[in-house]
Amino acid sequence: MVNAERRGKAMVELRPISNVGSSFLGIMKDRGYGKSFQVHDPHRVGRITVELQGRIKDCKALTYRQDVKARDIEQYRLKILPTRQWGYVVITTPDGLLDHEEATRRNVGGQVIGYFH
């Protein structure tokens, strides 16, 4: 997605897909980093078509799932993101996939799966 964003593409197709990936894209869309996305054939290998908005500078999924406590989320965010003004850390919690703001509001910790800014 970052490469397509840098090339000025309007849409990108992602394959293969997972429920975690589509939830991650849902958080990105809710926070204004994507216009829309459609899941095609989710029961098989499938694909996701994402309509880009032009705001993504970096988007990473961490291969190691790092545990973070609710009180340590803000420190982790400051360490991972380049600035305090924008960007989100995505955390998998018992309440589902949440960004760092929602996890702090609900006072739940979990495992960091990625970030975007």
UniProtKB/TrEMBL annotation:
<dbReference type="Pfam" id="PF00410">
    <property type="entry name" value="Ribosomal_S8"/>
</dbReference>
<dbReference type="InterPro" id="IPR035987">
    <property type="entry name" value="Ribosomal_uS8_sf"/>
</dbReference>
<protein>
    <submittedName>
        <fullName>40S ribosomal protein S15a-2-like</fullName>
    </submittedName>
</protein>
<dbReference type="GO" id="GO:0003735">
    <property type="term" value="F:structural constituent of ribosome"/>
</dbReference>
<keyword id="KW-0689">Ribosomal protein</keyword>
<dbReference type="GO" id="GO:1990904">
    <property type="term" value="C:ribonucleoprotein complex"/>
</dbReference>
<dbReference type="InterPro" id="IPR000630">
    <property type="entry name" value="Ribosomal_uS8"/>
</dbReference>
<comment type="similarity">
    <text>Belongs to the universal ribosomal protein uS8 family.</text>
</comment>
<dbReference type="GO" id="GO:0005840">
    <property type="term" value="C:ribosome"/>
</dbReference>
<dbReference type="GO" id="GO:0006412">
    <property type="term" value="P:translation"/>
</dbReference>
<keyword id="KW-0687">Ribonucleoprotein</keyword>
